[in-house]
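Limitations

Structures in this collection are predictions, not experimental determinations, and the ligand pose is part of the prediction. Treat each record accordingly. The example that follows, with S-adenosylmethionine as the small molecule, is included so readers can see exactly what is and is not provided: the inputs are given verbatim, and the output is the predicted complex.
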Amino acid sequence: MNTPDGQNRAETTDYNTVVKPDFARRYLETYFKSIDEDERRICTFLAEEYAKLVGNPEMIDIGCGPCIQHVLSATPYVSSIQLADYLDGNLDELRNWIQSQETAFDWTHFTEFILQLESADSSAKAIAHRESTLRSKVVNIRHANVLDESVIGEDKQFGAVGFFYCAEAAAKTKPEWQKTIANVARLVEPGGRMFIASCRNTNFYTVKTDDGKDEVIPTASVNEDDFAALLPNIGFSLERSRIEVVNVGMGADHGIEDILLLSLQKNGEKIDRDTTSDSVNTVINKAP
Ligand SMILES: C[S@@+](CC[C@H](N)C(=O)[O-])C[C@H]1O[C@@H](n2cnc3c(N)ncnc32)[C@H](O)[C@@H]1O
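Predicted complex:
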């Protein structure tokens, strides 16, 4: 299957050259001004699955884009959070939000929704508190390339790894997609958890351009069978995984009719670490 504009030739999508400029703002404006059905389902799934984290692990969100909504609900369960993406423009948006700049994207509607999912106080004060707790736990905003075997350029592993809508965005063919998932899986500690959201059975999604038209961005078309075939080969048992197919009905607007939600536990003994380390916000890599 080809994308509507006929692009689907190379094996990967280089977001620096293939995707139109100002992806970060356009992506935020297209998908996050309100809470779409896919995000409602992802946030609900994550609220349940993050609660299974034990030992206050370190977390990294790989290919996080300009977004913080998928780590907001992890905040109570992790000691520190790193945000990693390929595009500098996305990292700039994240720094804006961490630094509470006036131009930062407003995520308060997501924070309110996430607190409601937790049956917690969702007043303005509680929203501000959750957001400031997240800001204090983000210890690094950094570059990542999921197409590289060394995704973040160091050997570090994490007890919790988020990987949302990224593998199928960076890869266009199934072999490249498999490599991408395997590369990120290496970042997960033995016994640690990986959380994934993926488009299902589509080879594109759309992002609005400034003139109101849709930019069509290619994706690898994958489904639950592809994950089931791959996961045991890269250290995850299907018995200890939760994999759901969710109809979100956004096909007509954005090319995303169904999504996949995965909560995976890596084989091996969980590392018993000192959870007091590295929870101080020291290395935000602030832009000049
Ligand atoms: C559809 S967006 C998903 C963003 C966010 N995780 C979310 O759930 O909304 C795809 C993201 O993958 C990132 N990306 C594309 N190629 C990448 C690569 N080679 N390495 C790391 N991230 C990449 C893009 O910059 C973009 O932020």
